[in-house]
Specification:
Shape of chain A: globular
Order of helices and strands of chain A: HHHHHHHHHHHHHHHHEEH
Distance between the termini of chain A: 66 Å
Largest interface: A-B, 65 and 66 residues
Number of strands of chain A: 2
Number of helices of chain A: 17
Strand content of chain A: under 5%
Strand order of the largest sheet of chain A: 1-2
Oligomer: homodimer
Radius of gyration of chain A: 21 Å
């Protein structure tokens, strides 16, 4: 009676939510973060075809599910942005900056080398993209693991979190640069310094503009919004602010998620003081249930799109192993960025390992970026990246637990 | 760089959210409920074409926006269902039942007569559907108005709210019956008692089955779910429960919203005691921000789809006026259903007036139901129904305020 799309969508959502929570449960039982379980749950749903049940294969391409998943990842980056302020980013010391920078350079070079070594037939763009995929640290997973271990207030945690924030921005800029280079190469040109320059200028103008103008504009917008006599104005204003930034980011040629992250960074507790001072709860509090609904859809769908059959293609497991080693070793370079004495350099290097959502976002964008008609990240390479993300996510909690307890004794 | 649909969707969402809150603000300034402002905000967005700005006309048909709007209305009915329990429905006395029943019969007959009188060229199905559209009381608006007036704890309020709940179910059954009749007529047959009987049996089996099996199943499901070690399990389980019921309702031939409402009725505080007893907040609390995001999209889109140009078609304003009078007078029959002495019968009749979301849901379904290729509710009739909903929603707060204060003095 109702249009078919909504009936199909709600059935899909029920399946995805159940898979997400069952996956999260088993991940928790194994002491792993929920995101790993959501990926695994999706991986099972998306590969039931191998067992003769291809009925759920439509989830890989369903437009409604895809739309909600993309809305989920935009909200996630907004949330991650909300966790930090522009001022906090300015304050984090040289240690965070150096750790972040070394943590980008190390994996980038190693990832590029792994690509050149194991994928000699692919273009230089594919190798560069592979390097870029390894750069960003997952601030969400890192923060959650540190909190679970009760180490959030240590010097090491502050350096890791600060570096992870800087790393996210650096990684997003690298992504924009690499994607821009590929896009310009795809339009017939080759790797030109002018193109790099223009991408860098655009990215810089947008990010600096978003941060500076956003800081001023946001206070003004929220002060006006607070005068509106309607329920849910704080949430609606925050979401509209996020969506406009994300849309602007997309219009400028960057990814919408870059804009959403910038929107989150710009919003601070003081921005919505006109609301909180009259007793309303914070924006994060309102966003949380919406993210709790939509974000797992993104990770389950990422798992659904992981083709286990691709693993038997020659070279995929080898590539996955090489990428994982590059991802882990590359971040150990971070240790050299830690200034000051008595700091647990090993824990910092280990804490930078998880790639989580940002690695997956990079990988999924690689599927849609094309050079000469071919996606820059093939299905097999995507699967290898997902394995790398799963392994780096998986080893971090036990590794950090071991590393911190090693010093405690 | 990202797929175009998400960029378009987030821009649309930002516009819709701003329209919803600005509309809600001006409605509040005029002492009216937010839903009226959301409709008006959408009405302006959807009719900018009349002023030479047709750029937003795509919102009328955008599939992503439509999907989120439909998700919103499913969540709204789930929320409304959560506000009541099956036991509360059993307990509400004969007064509530009689008020509800009279409140369905009166407007149904008057609406049918108005259709037969003013739309003689349309089929008997269109007239019956028009009658059905007038039956349901909007429990959401009624509850909010009573709360705003500080009258939630009066006998009159309990009778109105109880009747509104029963009314919703009766209205939804009528909708299912009428829609089923139209669907069977559309497949070549005519109005047959067997078809009515089958629709009634299906609707009854689903509703009774959903309520009985749901009460047992839900406690069992939530008890098992509570053992899962993952964050957000209560929300995910509640949403999955709602989506499965909504999907089942759709599969059986009823509207997904009927299933969502039944799912809400079935879930009681005791169902999620395994969660709340360990300190988690209630399901309603988690659903609220998601509904606060998605529900206004439905009402703004309803406004967007209201074609102001249709009002100048001959007969639309006349039909709207006749429907509104039928809607208001029809509910005054409710007074005769109130048992006991000293009860404010006028306030109860006035409190039953608002049609709000349920009337709009009926109307929007009428747009998609077809008899012999023609929608059973034409664009002009839809506009007339929206005017009726707006007027009944608009007059209730001042009418109730006057009625209650009349007795206080």
């Amino acid at each position: 009676m109702e249009a078919a799309p909504i009936a199909s969508l709600i059935a899909s959502l029920a399946i995805i939510l159940v898979a997400a929570k069952l996956g999260g449960h088993f991940a928790a039982r194994l002491g792993q973060p929920p995101v790993l379980g959501e990926l695994a749950g999706g991986l099972i749903l998306g590969n039931l075809g191998l067992l003769g049940f291809p009925q759920l294969d439509y989830l890989k391409t369903d437009p409604g599910v895809d739309l909600l998943a993309q809305l989920g990842v935009i909200l996630l980056l907004f949330q991650v942005g909300l966790e930090s302020t522009v001022a906090q980013m300015m304050k984090v010391g040289w240690s965070s900056f150096l750790v972040a920078t070394f943590g980008v350079i190390g994996p980038f070079i190693l990832g590029w080398l792994v690509g050149a070594w194991l994928l000699p037939d692919e273009s230089v763009y594919a190798h560069v993209f592979l390097g870029a995929t390894l750069t960003a640290t997952s601030v969400g997973i890192t923060a959650r693991v540190l909190k679970d271990l009760g180490k959030s207030q240590t010097d090491e945690a502050r350096i890791i979190l600060g570096a992870a924030v800087i790393d996210d921005v650096q990684g997003l800029v690298i992504l924009a640069v690499v994607a821009g280079i590929i896009a310009s190469a795809n339009q017939g040109g080759s790797l030109s310094y002018a193109a790099i320059g223009w991408v860098l200028v655009k990215a810089t103008i947008f990010l600096v503009g978003a941060l500076v103008a956003g800081l001023i504009l946001s206070r003004w917008i929220f002060r006006i919004a607070a005068r509106l006599e309607a329920a849910g104005v704080l949430l609606a204003t925050g979401l509209a602010f996020c969506f406009v930034f994300a849309w602007l980011g997309g219009e400028i040629g960057l990814a919408p998620i870059v804009g959403a992250f910038a929107a989150g960074l710009v919003l601070e507790d003081i921005t919505y003081k006109p609301f909180t001072s009259r007793g309303e709860t914070s924006l994060e509090h309102h966003i949380e249930p919406i993210a709790s609904f939509l974000v797992p859809i993104f990770f389950v769908v990422m798992g659904v799109r992981t083709n286990l059959a691709a693993f038997v293609q020659p070279g995929v497991l080898g590539l996955a192993a090489a990428l994982t080693v590059a991802a882990i070793l590359g971040k150990q370079v971070c240790s050299f960025g830690v200034l000051g004495k008595g700091r647990d350099r090993l824990s910092i290097g280990l804490g930078m390992i998880p790639r989580g959502e940002v690695g997956l976002i990079f990988a999924s964008m690689g599927l849609t970026l094309k050079v000469a008609g071919e996606p820059v990240v093939s299905g097999a390479v995507f699967s290898a990246i997902v394995v790398m993300v799963m392994v780096t996510t998986l080893i971090t909690p036990p590794a950090l637990k071991w590393s911190f307890s090693r010093r405690a004794t």
